[in-house]
Amino acid sequence: MKLSTYAKQLGISYQTAWKLFKDGKLNAYKLPTGTVIVREEETMGAEQGVAVYCRVSSSENKGNLESEKRRLLDYCAAKGYKVNRVVTEVGSGINDARKQWLSLLQDRTVRIIVVEHKDRLTRFGFAGYKALLNTDGRDIEGVNESDNDKEGLLQDLVSIIKQTCQYQVVGTLDSFISNRQNDFVYHIHRSAFNEDAKHRMFAVNKYELWYNKYPFL
Question: Is 0.85 surpassed by the pTM of this model?
């Protein structure tokens, strides 16, 4: 297939296709006459549903989504893939319940999911996702399998530490409040208050209304 035909089929300019060829991103060759021929296997991906998935770990890196998306679209153009869906998301790679990621997994019209590297999908269990998709005739394709996203990994680890500390603080606070409530009940029982006053104070303690100005209004 001529390079000009290939460009029209993908909906890109001839100049863009020529640059891809010059950069060595096309499976193509040049005839002695100067005509560039794109091999037919380059166009096979255009017949399949292809989606690109871009993710950053935090909103601080949200600006990187656009450059990541551009690199993936260039890669797909070089491979002859017709991209049907572009998905971008901000979230930790440790969180496998990300809304956009799950939506992409459930979209069976997407046969190939293209990512910059596997950590963009998930920090753990990539092989399992890939094997599961393969059983359905689908696949995940990484542009740079050797890329090590150290910054993103660090942010994900920080996220885990923050969540762990939060749970510990909340658990400690809950335990403290529960103990104080028990102490409160003990002292009220031993107090000289009348039964009506005790009943009201027990209700305040039970429903944690200590700081309400008018807890019973």
Answer: no
